[in-house]
Design brief:
Length: about 230
């Protein structure tokens, strides 16, 4: 039988992983973790300086900047992958919490009702969070990509502010309407919306310098990939 003339493929286990790849892995992990924390803490409504604010608003704004950093390091496909990965992980989390909540407890320990009170999610709020996250983050991705195509590597602060300015109002509106419309008084829903927009954009402004901390991956030093 004829044999292949190609040399055997060898893998060097000691080969160093590129710094940009390690950075991308860290950013994606941080992004997914922030999404999970935001969805869990969104189950509690807080009173912050007279505004009604869901607890997830304290964490969730960071995901917009983390998405921008992922986009810069790994390109648009990496950003989209992170968005859908975050949504998938959150769906699994919801299912796991539900399953653990409905399975019978060990009565020798007690009814353990605190778990259900704390972590068994309100399905409507979780669905609102996931839908708003996916739609808004995809809009953020497209706004960011459009800015980079037109401006290139100049004014990187602008790509963060512009993309977030497009995504944040959409995210906040989708979340409060799906999660709370009809369940809370209109003035409370309106308060939650404006508190979300103000706080999220404030965090975006404060996090702008982070875009200068990371460098694009070796394959993504062009204005933008498709």
């Amino acid at each position: 039988m004829p044999t292949s003339s190609l040399p055997p493929v060898t893998v060097d286990p000691d080969r160093r992983v590129p710094t940009w790849a390690l950075t991308l892995a860290f950013l994606v992990a941080a992004y997914v973790a922030a999404q999970m924390l935001a969805d869990i803490t969104s189950l509690r409504i807080l009173d912050v300086a007279g505004f009604s604010v869901d607890g997830g608003t304290l964490v969730y704004p960071l995901t917009f900047t983390l998405r921008d950093l992922i986009h810069k390091v790994g390109g648009v496909r990496a950003a989209r992958m992170a968005i859908f990965t975050g949504a998938g992980v959150n769906l699994v989390m919801v299912g796991l919490f539900w399953l653990v909540g409905v399975l019978p407890p060990d009565l020798s320990v007690g009814m353990q009702e605190e778990f259900g009170d704390l972590l068994s999610p309100v399905l409507r709020i979780v669905i609102a969070s996931i839908v708003a996250e996916v739609v808004a983050e995809l809009l953020d991705t497209e706004a960011y990509r459009h800015w980079v195509r037109r401006v290139g590597e100049r004014h990187q602060w602008g790509r963060v502010l512009v993309s977030n300015a497009v995504a944040i109002p959409v995210d906040s509106a989708l979340f409060v309407v799906i999660a709370f419309a009809g369940a809370l008084p209109p003035e409370v829903v309106f308060s939650i919306f404006w508190a979300n927009v103000i706080l999220k954009f404030a965090v975006s402004v404060l996090s702008v310098p982070l875009i200068y901390v990371v460098k694009p991956g070796e394959r993504y030093r062009v204005p933008e990939d498709s």
